Amino acid sequence: MFVDSLETLRKRRSAKWRTYPDDVLPMGVAELDCSLAPAVTAALRAAVEAADTGYSAAQPELGAAVAGFAARRWGWEVDPAAVTAVTDVGVGVVELLRMLTRPADTVVISPPVYPPFFDWPPEAGVQLREVPLTAEYRLDLPALEAAFAAHPAVYILCNPHNPVGRVHTPDELAALVRLAKLYGVTIISDEIHSPLVLPGARFTPMLTVPGAAEVTVSLMSASKAFNLAGLKCAAIVTGGAAMAALVERFPPDIRWRTGHLGVVATVAAFTDGDAWLDDLLAELDARRGQLGEQLRTRLPKITWTPPEATYLAWLDCRALGEDNEPREMFLSRARVGLEPGTRFGARGAGFVRLNFGTSADILDEATARMASATDR
Ligand SMILES: Cc1ncc(COP(=O)(O)O)c(C=O)c1O
User: Which contiguous run of DSSP H or E holds residue 328?
Assistant: First the structure.
């Protein structure tokens, strides 16, 4: 993975590089610091040079690209016609919730989890119920059963799970499907991090779990793995008529709201990006190892469970005794910008999330700065 110097990275105008002043190392927002996959750059360059910058008309290329990627990476057979372009994962989830719920309904999520999971249900006008992950960061199936028995409309699954990096097992997903069917709950499976499953773990697409297609809608995107978040394209995938009918009922204007360059880039990434992605995964594996080693030697009071997927590390800083807001301490004393654990739910107090999708040098600088702040 080629990562530019900090000086060059600071010229980026995206959220990661605009959140803090220049003396802060930004290790928060989930963007990658590497250059784009060559296939993506070539596709975007060709589109711009041809002034091919109008409205998106994603079909049929997007469906074919998603289906090809799913088949090659996980042996998952996706019907290209069952793939629908949408602005981003957030828009996709909110529109699905609008189709699946009525005002008094409840939606269940499992914190600690990606902060917008807390915002999407209220945006769609429904209540939220939290069923936290277990202490080992696994789905708490007995607690989920108790919650499902009250007949919530939807469970939003995060697989792989941001911020803890858990890749849920086939058995866990099968148990979830059984509960969803038993209690009439629809599962929205956010699989945006699935291309980022690291060596040692294996991803199970929810729609490959027997029986899941009747009760599951999945969302895929190239935006995390290929750093395309600003281009605005994600894909809703269904595996059966009932779930496909939900998408068919979407307001017609939705299709005009996907980024055309997002579709162009996503098609290139999912069609011709495998070799680049494999290199990226090897690099991220190395960064994960580097972070583990540097936490052990430089920041021994911080504990973590190395993630099975993603470039995000969920760091337990409670032993530092920083009034449960270590993010403020690392920002003010170390000038390192991290995501505060409390954004991922109340039990995130005392935690931070660190993005290691960067160069060995920048990660080294971040942990050195953090260590000197805790030494004081
Ligand atoms: C689990 C999860 N879902 C969705 C998103 C955001 O996706 P999008 O920008 O497509 O809405 C992120 C971004 O980090 C994420 O981690």
Answer: helix 326-329
Centroid of ligand 1 to alpha carbon of 260 (angstroms): 19
User: Does one domain contain both 307 and 353?
Assistant: yes
Q: Whose CA is nearest to atom 6 of ligand 1?
A: 89
We report the CATH number of the domain holding residue 126 as 3.40.640.10
Based on the fold, state whether residues 229 and 102 are members of the same structural domain.
yes
Position 229 in a domain: yes
C-alpha 90 – ligand 1 centre gap (Å): 7
Distance CA 225, CA 222 (A): 6
Encode pLDDT of 357-374 as tens digits. Answer: 999 999 999 999 999 999
Q: Is residue 304 part of a domain?
A: yes
Query: Based on the structure, what is the number of domains in the chain?
Result: 2
41: enclosing H helix or E strand: helix 38-49
Question: 25: domain CATH number?
Answer: 3.90.1150.10
Residue type at position 288: R
Identify the band that residue 280 occupies on the pLDDT scale cut at 50, 70 and 90: very high
252 and 111 housed in the same domain:
yes
Q: What's the rounded Cα separation, in Å, for the pair 258 and 53?
A: 12
How confident is residue 135, by pLDDT bands cut at 50, 70 and 90? very high
Cα separation values, 36 from 33, 43, 45, 199, Å: 9, 11, 12, 21
Q: Per-residue pLDDT tens for 53-71?
A: 999 998 899 999 999 999 9
Q: What is the mean pLDDT of the chain?
A: 97
Q: Which residue, by CA, sits nearest to atom 14 of ligand 1?
A: 30
| Preceding amide of 60 cis, omega within 30 | yes
Domain end, chosen from 209, 237, 272, is at 272
Determine, yes or no, domain membership for 1.
Answer: no
| Per-residue pLDDT at 376 exceeds 80 | no
pLDDT band of 215, cuts 50, 70, 90 = very high
Q: How far is the CA of 121 from the centre of ligand 1 (A)?
A: 15
Average pLDDT for residues 35-43, to the nearest whole number?
Answer: 98
What domain range is 230 assigned to?
Answer: 40-272
**Within-domain flag for 111:** yes
